[in-house]
Amino acid sequence: TPQLALRSAAPASLEDLRRIHPDSYLERFKAISDNGGGMLGKEAPLGPGSYEIACLSAGLACAAVEAVLKGELDNAYSLSRPPDQSMGFCFLANIPIAVERAKAQLGLGKVAIIDWDVHHGNGTQHIYLQRDDVLTISLHQDGCFPPGYAGEDDRGVGAGEGYNINIPLLAGAGDDSWRYALETIVIPALARFEPELIIIACGYDANAMDPLARMQLHSDSFRAMTEQVQQAADRLCGGKLVMVHEGGYAESYVPFCGLAVMEALSGIRTEVQDPLTEFAQFQRQAIDRLAQQFGLL
Fold this sequence. Notes:
Blueprint: H1 14-18, H2 23-34, E1 38-41, E2 44-46, H3 50-69, E3 75-78, H4 94-106, E4 111-115, H5 122-128, E5 134-141, E6 164-169, H6 175-193, E7 197-202, H7 219-237, E8 241-245, H8 254-266, H9 279-293
Parallel strand pairs: 3-8, 4-5, 4-7, 5-6, 7-8
Antiparallel strand pairs: 1-2
Helix pairs in contact: 3-4, 6-7, 7-8
């Protein structure tokens, strides 16, 4: 849409990647990619060219952060795909790569990272566990992935103690639970930390249609959560908010959730109607028709 600033970006450089990932890992990743693909880690298959695609994905996240920090954009959404180690369909830690580049090149200070992908943000937690300049918050399905993990007792180590927050939510949690968690824990934690930038690891796999999770969110949930964080960003850091695309495996439904987030970020409401949020009214109308046929209405 011409109403949005659509941009591409250069791939992340080897220097960018090395701030987060060891050379041995990057060399093995590139070798497997160059040789036609294979398994890089647990549940992390890759094909030919995956290394270059992953570098472009990380580059998009870097560019989104830089554009917002420089004031070129009010906020940004990086349509890329992530993390720290190769597992769960992920190869590079897009958000930490972007954060560390901005710290090195733009003097970025305190950053808050909110991960609402339904799976635990284990890569980001691992990278920043001992640091107090990055607040990491993960909302995730209790015990989903990594299997059995909740994490509420993992709150940081050393200088990072108190700067890592895990919010495990029970399977079946829906709109009220997720938004209440933001209201009760996430937003107050942001206010206490006072970040210069907020980044959201924006997974959509907590939606009710996702085959790999057991949550009950819908597109308006993601819209409302985005608006909650936007309002906090407006109060705390001049509206500086970047969202980086992550998981979501219901191919027919993720686009509705993504559009809702884009609408919240841009302030533009389209005419698209989400069939899931319209379902209750549709079903009521069908029941009314039946009642009329039975002579009961």
